[in-house]
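Subject: Sanity check before I submit

Could someone independently write out the C-alpha cells for this chain? I want to compare against mine line by line before I put it in a report. The sequence has 554 residues.
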Amino acid sequence: MRNGGQLLVESLVALGATKGFGVPGESYLAVLDALHDTQGKLDFVLCRNEGGAAFMAAAWGKLTGQPGLCFVTRGPGVTNASIGVHTAMQDSAPMILFVGQVGTDMKGREAFQEIDYRAVFGTMAKWAVEIDDVERIPEILARAWTTATTGRPGPVVIALPEDMLTRLTDAAPLAGPARMAEPAPAAGAMAEALAMLEGAARPLVLLGGCNWTEAGQKALQGFAEASDIPVVAAFRYQDQFDNFSPVYAGEAGVGMPAHVRKLILDADVILAINVRFGEMTTDGYTLLNVPVPSQKLIHVHASDREIGKIYQPTLGIQAGPNAFAAALRPVKGGWADWRAKGRKAYEDGFEAPVQPSPVDMVLATAHLREVLPEDAILTNGAGNFTVWPNKFYKFGPKARLLAPQSGAMGYGVPAAIAAKVAFPERTVVCFAGDGDFQMNCQELGTAMQAGAQPIILVLNNGIYGTIRAHQERNYPARVSGTELQNPDFVMLAQSYGYHAERVETTGDFPAAFARARASRTGALLELNISPEALTPRQTLSQMREAALKAKETA
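---
Independent answer below. Compare away.
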C-alpha cells in the first residue's frame, strides 16, 4: 500500500522525470514527503516564486523536449504560476503543472484558496484535470505525459485534492512512458508537396516548434541546401536551424527585417513545417491573406488543429516535423539568386551604426559571437534589448535560444537557471533589461541553492524600453510611467553569491565577460546602456522627432 502522493512521485520517476521546480505548499505535503525518498532520481528544485518556478518548467520543456514539471500550492500559488502555463502554451513546450487543491469534501464551497482549475486553465492549457479517485492517478498521469508531448506540445494542469494524496491505495505505479511513433506523411502528399516546390519560382521554407530531433534538423538542412531553398525561422525558433548554413535567411518575428518580410510576401510557394501561425511570425497576419493566402501554402504539422486554423493551405499534411523532414527529397529549380539575395541580406543585418551608448551592444554581441562555445544556451525575457540575442547572434546546430513567444517579461532569468540545472557543464547567458530582470531577480536565490548559476547581462537603461518606444511614437515627449529608479544590481547579485560588476564602457566588456565566465558561482554584469540606444538603427530622440513631425503635418 502507498498513498496518492507516493503513487504520483513513483510514477513520475518511472516516466523518466529527473527534476521538478516548485514552491512548497501545505496542500501537497504528501507529494513533498514522497520526493524526500527520490533525491538523486527526481529532485525538487526549490524556487522563490511560483511564476519563476513555472517559467523554469516551461523552459525545461522547450530545451529538453520532456515535460517540465512544476509543483505549486492552490489559489495564490497557481495564479502566480499561470504565467508559465501561458508561456508554455504559446511556445508549444511540454509542461505539467501539479497544483494542490482543497479536499473533495469541501469542493464547491469557495473553501480557503479554492479554485476551479478546469475553468481557469481550460483555455490556457492543452488539458486541465482534477483527480477525484486515487486509483486513477497512474491513468491520468500517463495521459498528461502523452498530451504534453504529442501533437502540438503544450502544458497540462493537474489538480491534486489533499485527500487524494493522503488516501492509501494498492494501485501500481506506472512502469514507463508510452512509446509514441511520430506521425509520418502519406506518400501521395509528399509527392504533391515536392511537385509544388519544384514548380515554384520563389520557394521558401518556414520552420518552427521546439520538438525537432537532431536527425530531423539535419534532414531538413540537407534538403534545403541540396535544393538551394531559403529557410526562415518562425518567431524565436532560429535555434532550430543552423544559422551558418548558406540557405538560412533570418527570423520572422518582432522587429522583422525588411528582407524577411519581403521573402514571405514574394514567395510563391511556402513550405511551413511545425509552425503555429502567430501574430509575430505573420507581421500581424499581413504577410499572408486570411483565410486564403495568395502564396501556395504547404502546411505540415503533427496537430490537425493547427492546419487550417488561420490559413487554408493549398496542401495540409498532418505529420511530425522529423518524420516529414526524413521523407523530403531534393528538388531543383531556377531560384539560386532568390536564395543568395536572402542570405546576403541576413548577413548584412549584422552591420549597424555605432550606438549612442557607453556600452555599444553591437560590439558587445559581436564579441559574444567570437568567444561563446558552440553549445552555448542564450535566454531572454521581453523588451527591446532582446534584439541583441535574437537578431545579432548566430545559432549553430548545438546552440540554443530560450525566449518566450508570449513576450513574457521575467522569463530569461528562470529559463537560464533551468538550463543550468539541465546542463551544468554548458555556458548559459541570460540577456535581461533592468525592468525585465526585476520581474524575477529573486530567483538568484534558487540558482544559489541549486548550484545552477548562469551568466546574466543586465542591460540597464533606466526605462521600460519597449513601452517607451511605443510611447514616443504615439504620444511623443509625454513620458508617463516608463522611467525606472533601480537598486544597485551589483550589490544585489553579490548578496546571492554571484560574481558581479558594472561595465561602464564597451572597451571594458571583453575582460569583464572573461571574468564572468571564470566565476564558479555565476556572474552578473550590469551594462551601462543609454536610453538613447533604444533600437540598433533608430534612437529614442529620432523616434520622438519623427512622431512630432508627423503630428505637425497631420
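---
OP: Matches mine. For the report I'm noting this point. The two ends are 77 Å apart (CA to CA).
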